[in-house]
Amino acid sequence: MTARRLNTEHIQVAATLRRMREHAKVSREEAASLLGCTSSKIGDLEVGRSKPKPAELERLLDHYGITGAERDELVQFARTSRGRRAPSPYSTAAIPGNHIRTADLEAQALSSVFYSGELIPGILQVRSYAEALLSWGRESRPDEVARFLDLRMERAGALTRTHRPPLRYWCILSETALRSNIGGAKVMREQIGHLIQANLTMENIVVQVLPQGSGAHAFLGLTIALLRFPPPAPDTLMLDSYGRMIFEDRPGEVARAAHHLELLKAQALGLDSSTDFLQRLHQELSVE
């Protein structure tokens, strides 16, 4: 039997429910007892294999201490999403900002392939690099920077999780991203050192370098990630654009992007050559 196909909104709701439960320090068994169901049903709700009924969702949100707009839109989504796919109300407060939404989806994913010509991905950023990025334009809002920074640092947990296999992460970076001088030479040296260690010590991470002068490819000017989830959740593209994140789960578009990412892997330096390149750049920064 063909598995029922979900969509990105359902995966996001599932990921958000899991985050809320974990932040409330509630076990799956406790949540299951609250609903009078098995812990496996809670697991199904948290990966999108089943959809919560509004009454079930409200009981969980009460127990997790969730209030306000995020709660209201989650409940509205549960009430309107049990039939055919329709315009989703789950699009403002309850689909969190890019920082939280990306973290939730990475926590659910089995694997991710990332490309950027400008930035190190958040999940691989060291604290000093992330702080330099997040502080830009928020100089008068240090509390906001601190919240975003803590969340960004938490994202790396998906790479080392032990309750299920860690996220498999394949990162392709343009040489330009590695020479962006974000935070200055000291910060960039620390960041590149972290990428070197990831390549040398973590079997689930690959960092490839696309050198300057490598020629044209499909993702020039874009930052893109392809996430794969446990079935029946769809593979999903995330495209980072000015001020917002675009999500795409139509199979044809996802397949086309996956093909071009494979071509980009072949165009970039291999793992060993990429590590050598990073080590040379790290040495350059150490003498500046």
From TrEMBL:
GO MF term list: DNA binding
InterPro entries: Cro/C1-type_HTH, DUF5753, Lambda_DNA-bd_dom_sf
Signal peptide extent: none
Domain HTH cro/C1-type: 17-71
Domain of life: Bacteria
SMART domains reported in the protein's UniProt record: HTH_XRE
Entry-linked Gene3D superfamilies: lambda repressor-like DNA-binding domains
Protein name stated in the entry: Helix-turn-helix domain-containing protein
